[in-house]
């Protein structure tokens, strides 16, 4: 039958959206009751039907059913919709992926085994409220944050703007965060729960590869940021490492958000070199179990000159940075969005218009680093074909954000299936074989 928490969650969301529709359209009472009864009847009937079929079919039905809810989120203010989506994932009101990933999508990176290369980018679950629910959706990995040492509200609202026709979003949130103490408590509680369920939250296979992550199935990344008022960026990142790295399968130094003054200046050659050295030292001085310290990743912007990219690549190679995320949002406004009045809003642009720009930067960085550093492709992915383009351009892993905001949970299995199809169509037997194919 339909999972009770999910059922209650869907009904709660439906009631909330119906209330908004009542205010907006002033439906007659009998029509409101008719729609409510019909909606609940469909849910109950669907649940009864689903109980008669196999688990895989039931799971597919649940993911498809989320498409019915997506239009209601579009009626909400963007930040309210985001808040509701995080709450739904945190409370288990979302489907759980029970079907195994296509074998061709499995990949090993940093000595950790990913069941698939499709992850959720930082910015969605800023405060690690919904890690278990989000991993349960079928992502190969989930990245929380950005997390700042001290809680901060971020920039004034409104600060998130939809460009629906273009499949894009502009945000100027400014690292709104509950701070590392709140995030550490949540991740610590989750870590403790996992240790009770299993003898260890991570285990090593015979070939020395970590099975699962510190959050259980799936890999957990923690994205670190600096406070707006901080004058010592390095100390902010070091504090994040000391407090949160024990719960992370990998750590991210985010120096690429356009919404924190001065942050992108840390991408300069000298500044980046000094920063990475301090953060690496902080990580390496800590005590680690047999699975070792978490890899250290740097997230860069798409708005970089050729010289900037060369400098970053040189630093990454010299200091043996474990990976790069390419890229964050852009302050540019591509032709695809210039006709939209919302495009005049200040902030970083994400979504479909970013795909070409971020993929070109990804390809450049793959060439500059000679394929020696794992790259995570992020920016504009809304289909399996988009993810495949990133991989062929040099990405080992990929991340979604805006595509997920518009497409909802149903997009995840679709992207994985399409990606597997793209690989098989071109004769690749694994992700490894396809990485950087367009650069060779």
Automatic annotation (TrEMBL):
Domain Dihydroorotate dehydrogenase catalytic: 105-423
Pathway: Pyrimidine metabolism; UMP biosynthesis via de novo pathway; orotate from (S)-dihydroorotate (quinone route): step 1/1
Membrane association type: Single-pass membrane protein
Keyword Oxidoreductase: yes
Catalyzed reactions per annotation: (S)-dihydroorotate + a quinone = orotate + a quinol
EC numbers, comma separated: 1.3.5.2
Family: Belongs to the dihydroorotate dehydrogenase family. Type 2 subfamily.
Protein known as: Dihydroorotate dehydrogenase (quinone), mitochondrial
Organism (species): Salvia splendens (Scarlet sage)
Upper taxonomic lineage: Eukaryota, Viridiplantae, Streptophyta, Embryophyta, Tracheophyta
């Amino acid at each position: 039958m339909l999972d009770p928490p999910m059922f209650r969650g869907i009904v709660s969301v439906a009631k909330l959206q119906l209330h908004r529709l009542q205010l907006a359209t002033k439906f007659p009472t009998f029509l409101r009751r008719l729609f409510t009864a019909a909606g609940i009847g469909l849910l109950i009937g669907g649940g009864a039907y689903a109980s008669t079929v196999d688990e895989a079919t039931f799971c597919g039905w649940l993911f498809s059913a989320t498409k019915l809810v997506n239009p209601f989120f579009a009626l909400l203010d963007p930040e309210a919709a985001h808040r509701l989506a995080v709450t739904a994932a945190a409370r288990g009101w979302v489907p759980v992926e029970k079907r195994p990933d296509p074998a061709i999508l499995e990949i090993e990176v940093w000595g950790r085994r990913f069941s698939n290369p499709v992850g959720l980018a930082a910015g969605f679950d800023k405060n690690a409220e919904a890690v278990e629910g989000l991993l349960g959706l079928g992502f190969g990995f989930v990245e929380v944050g950005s997390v700042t040492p001290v809680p901060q509200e971020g920039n004034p609202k409104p600060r998130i703007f939809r460009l629906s026709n273009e499949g894009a979003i502009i945000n100027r949130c400014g690292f709104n965060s509950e701070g590392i103490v709140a995030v550490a408590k949540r991740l610590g509680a989750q870590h403790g729960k996992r240790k009770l369920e299993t003898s260890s939250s991570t285990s090593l296979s015979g070939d020395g590869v970590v099975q699962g992550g510190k959050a259980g199935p799936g890999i957990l990344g923690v994205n670190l940021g600096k406070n707006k008022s901080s004058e010592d960026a390095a100390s902010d990142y070091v504090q994040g490492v000391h407090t949160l790295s024990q719960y992370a399968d990998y750590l991210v130094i985010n120096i690429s958000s356009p919404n924190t003054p001065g942050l992108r200046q840390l991408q300069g050659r000298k500044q980046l070199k000094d920063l990475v050295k301090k953060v690496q030292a902080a990580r390496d001085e800590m005590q680690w179990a047999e699975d070792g310290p978490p890899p250290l990743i740097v997230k860069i912007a798409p708005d970089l000159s050729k010289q900037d990219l060369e400098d970053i690549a040189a630093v990454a190679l010299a200091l043996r940075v474990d990976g790069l995320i390419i890229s964050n949002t852009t302050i540019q406004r591509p032709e695809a969005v210039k006709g939209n009045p919302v495009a005049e809003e200040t902030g970083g642009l994400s979504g479909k218009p970013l795909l070409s720009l971020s993929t070109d930067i990804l390809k450049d960085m793959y060439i500059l680093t000679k394929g020696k550093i794992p790259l995570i492709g992020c920016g504009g992915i809304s289909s399996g074909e988009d993810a495949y383009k990133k991989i062929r351009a040099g990405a080992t892993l990929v991340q979604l954000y805006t595509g997920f905001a518009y497409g909802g949970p149903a997009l995840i299995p679709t992207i994985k299936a399409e990606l597997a199809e793209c690989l098989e169509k071109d004769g690749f037997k694994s992700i490894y074989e396809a990485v950087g194919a367009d650069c060779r």
